[in-house]
Each structure stands twice: as C-alpha cells, then as structure tokens.
Amino acid sequence: MQEKSKSWLKFLSEVILLVLLFTLVQYALSAGLVNQSYQITLTSMCINVILAVSLNLINGFTGQLSLGHAGFMAVGAYASVIITNFMDLPFIIGILGGCLAAGIAGFVVGVPTLRLKGDYLAIATLAFGEIIRVVLQNIDYVNGPAGIVGITKLTTWSWLYWAAILTILVIVNLMNSSYGRAIVSIREDEVASELMGINTTGYKVLAFVIGAMFAGLAGVLYAHYFYIIKPETFNFLKSFDMLVMVVLGGLGSTTGAVIAAIFITFLTLALQKYAAMRMVIYSLILIIVMIYRPQGLMGTKELSRKTFARIWGGKK
Amino acid sequence: MLEFSQQMINGLSLGAIYALIALGYTMVYGIIKLINFAHGDIMMVGAYVGFFSITLLGTNIVVAMLVAMIFCAALGVIMEKIAYRPLRNSTRIAALITAIGLSLFLEYITVVILGPAQKVFPASAFPVKVYNIAGLSILNKQIFVFVSAVLLMLILQYIIKRTKTGKAMRAVSLDQEAAVLMGISVDRTISITFAIGSALAAAAGVMIGVYYQTINPLMGIIPGLKAFVAAVLGGIGLIPGAMVGGFVMGLLETMVSGYGNSLYRDAVAFGVLIIILLIKPTGLFGKNTGEKV
What we know:
The complex is a heterodimer.
Chain A: H1 2-30, H2 36-61, H3 69-86, H4 91-113, H5 118-137, H6 157-176, H7 178-188, H8 190-195, H9 200-223, H10 236-249, H11 254-270, H12 275-292, H13 305-313
Helix pairs in contact in A: 2-6, 2-9, 2-10, 2-11, 3-4, 3-5, 3-9, 4-9, 6-7, 6-9, 7-9, 10-11, 10-12
Chain B: H1 2-32, H2 39-55, H3 61-84, H4 92-114, E1 119-120, E2 130-133, E3 136-139, H5 140-162, H6 164-174, H7 176-181, H8 186-212, E4 214-215, H9 221-234, H10 239-259, H11 265-279
Antiparallel strand pairs in B: 1-4, 2-3
Helix pairs in contact in B: 1-5, 1-8, 1-9, 1-10, 2-3, 2-4, 2-8, 2-9, 3-8, 5-6, 5-8, 6-8, 9-10, 9-11, 10-11
C-alpha cells in the first residue's frame, strides 16, 4: 500500500516539475526576456530532442541503423503544410496528418527494408531518404526544389514543449513494456530472439513506424516555425546530424539522447558561422566516440532520480 | 538505333568509372565485411590530388593519375590503421558509424582547407577531340576513361589471381582464422586491400575530373553511393560482380537520362538497389549462404 502511494507521489512530483519548467519558460517568453536568437535555439532544441529520441528508438533500442530519418521529417513537414496552408484546416489536424503521413511512409519503407540485416539496411534507408527528397523536388504542387515559402507560424512554445514530452513519454513507456523487451532482444541477438518466438520483422517495423511518426511530428513543428521548407533542408546531412546526437548520447539511452540533443543544439549555435568546421567536429565526435566508447557516452544507462540520489547521498 | 548506340558509348565510359569505384567497395567488404562509406570520398581526394598534380606540378594526365593513386593508397592504409583496426572486433553498427564519420571528415576537412567552391579541371591537360565513326560521335576522353579503366581491372585480376599477395587476400576473405594458421599476416593483407581499393578509387576520381571537368569536395557522395549499388548488384564481395555491376549501372543511368527524366537519374539508382535487396540480396553472381549462429 505504502509502495503505491509512494509511486503516486513520485508521479505527482514529476508532473509538477514539468509544468513548472514549462511555465517558467513561458513566462520568460511572454515577458520578452528571451531574444529572437534564443527563441530559435529553444525551438531547435525541442525539435532535436524529438528527433534524437525517436531515432534512438530505431538505432539504439532496436539496433537497426537507419539513415533516412530526415526523409520522414520531410514527409511530415510537407503533409502538414498541405493540410494547414493549402487546405486551411486547423493546426491540430496538420499535426495528426503529418504524423500519419510519416508513419505510413515509415511503414512503406520499413516493411521491405527491415528484412535486410545491418549494413544493407543503413544503405537502403539512406537510399529511401534520398528518393523521398528527389520525389519532392519533382512535384510541382509543392513548388519542386524551390520549396514552400510563407508558411503560417503556428508552432508555439507549448506545442514544442509538450510534443517533446509526449515523445519521451511514449518511447520510455514503450521500452518499459513487453514490446520494449522484445525490441531490445532483437538488438541483443536477432537469431536468438527469433528462436524465442518473437516476430522480429514485426517488432522492427513497429519501432520503425513509431520512430518515423515522431520524425514527422518534428517536421510539422519545424515547418510551422521557420516559414519555409525546401527538399534540400531534409538531405542526408540532416540524418547524419541526428545520428551524431544518438551516438553521442548513447545507443539505447533516452536520457542520453535528450542530453546529446540539447548539447548538439548549443554546439550548432556556437559554430553557426563555421558550417564546415561544425561538420568536421561532428565527424570527429562520431569517430572518437566509436573508437573509445562504442556504446556512446551514456551507453544504455538512463539518468533517473536514483542516479541523482546516489550522487547526492554519496553511497549506494 | 543510332541514338541507342550513342547512349551505349556514353554509358560504357561512365560504367567503367563506377566499376573502378565498386571494386574498392567489394574488396574491402569481401575482406572485413565493412561497407567503407568513405570510399567515395577517397575518390574525391584522388580527383583533387590529380588536379593539383596537373596545375601545380605541371604533370600530364597519366602521371597525375599515378600520383593520385599513390597518395590515396597511403591514405586508405592510414585510415584503416587509425579508424577501422581498433574496431575490428566490435559491433557492425560501430564500424559503420565510424565509416560514416570518416566520410564526413574527408568531405568537410576538404571544404575547410580548399573551400566549398568547385574547381575546373584544366582543359589543357586533356584537349577534347571528337571522332565521328559511322554517325556516332566518340570523345577521346571516353576512350581514355574506358581503356585505362579496363587496363586497371586487368592488372587487378592479375594481382588477385596470380600473385602471392592476391592469394593471401583471397584466403583472408574466405576464412580469416584459417589464413592466420597458414602464416598469412592478416593485418598486412587488409592494409594491402585498402591500398589497392583506394588507388582504384583515386584513378576513378581523376577520370571523373577529366570526364565532367569540374570537381568539388562533395563530389564523392553520389558516385560513391552508385558504385556501392553497383557492387551490391553484382554481389558484394565478388570482384567480377563489381565490374559487371558498374557497367550495368553506368548504362542504366545514361539510358534513364537519355530517354527519361534526368532529374530522376539518382532516384533510379537507389530504386535499383532496393529492388535487388528485396529480390536477390546476394546480387547477380552471389550464392545464398545460410546464417551461422
């Protein structure tokens, strides 16, 4: 009984903490304490968190190296802009439509490619991401390579914040369920998990579709904040950006992905003027992390209240 | 028919370039089971070395190609020593991420050093001549590319089939542990494989410089991916497969841009990849092997 009330208390404290953080930033924003450049950073941070956490589900937890995440982001962005700007429907339908479209794209890409193993999958997803981009460039309805300009700015801090929280909650809960254990078993040993009767392709597709849907969500929020979307924005360098976050954070650690996404956002801001140097640093991060700490900085460990308690208490 | 033959000629010379790059992918994959993502970028470095050899040292095109090949062979060996060797016993995903990292590193370190703008390959190094044979126009650079590529492939065949080094390479790719027991130095053999593969890529880079006349730091990405598709098409790990795959990809690409929409040129290459992976992942010449547990 006591155990139950304790977990209830824990839940309440978490909710209070999250709402507090939200209100604090919301207050700072409405009071005009945050300048334009920091507002953009805040937006990219939330979008990067969504992307990193969702890609981590595919690359980290399922162990399937996907390099086409930017493609799904593009699908979500374009679908939602068609809904909100071309059809004049409300933003919430745009969000749902964007996620759904990206999810469908994820399913279409995932079903054939996820039968492939390891390295082939990486190339196939990379190829699919590029095909999505080339196809978008050739559709006149969405202005081809020029992209769509003048998108209504509908993304607000509340959308960004709660979307990021929703992403984290869904993925953390998924990983704590029996589905999550099946997904991790695929990463650990695909043959063994198949022998245990797990439908490995089914679970891989599930993880892939969920990951793609959240990439779509990130795309929707991106499109409705930055006014403009072009197929070129979602090229494979964008997918590599996301990969750097996941690798740095730890393949299979959601908190790691969040921390890395925030860190990379600030690094991008700091290196804004040196775009090429930024890529050199990213590539060195990838190589050095893989050689000296192949599991990423956090590995599969999660940062939780227990970790803090351990540091605080200095024992156990 | 004339149009078709003309496209065939264009396709063959482009295919020869893809085949050369695909050989490097296939050799490395055959020996350490790694997709060397940075392979296309080695080709780019080769093109730049060739460019500087012509413009700064004033060498002719053949010497430039040799300089580029030697430089890139060394680069390939160093890359393998620093980045791939420490990861030989770690997971596939780690090695793959490192390869992606190396690819980005080569691209952007070139941008940082030489700037992102494209450079024009000096036309004086290779004056264009057009031969008109039976209504077909053949450029001398097409002949140059095709002949030198085929020559390099013949040399490669000789090395692999007739020399001791080649025998060692075949042995290591067949069974690494057994090769060690036979007294073959695996590290050395892998280094040689990287050197040969990278040298072929460098030659292809110089050829692309001659063929398209412009080079830029990101030029390696798309031909690299297409050459990879070529290697998979022929059956990755198989040398004759890479050659055939390269020519098929080159012909397919010129046919698509000749008869269809050239904007879809790149998408078609990837479409081919996905179709092969679904229908016959082992490629045209590959044999199906069961998975060992």
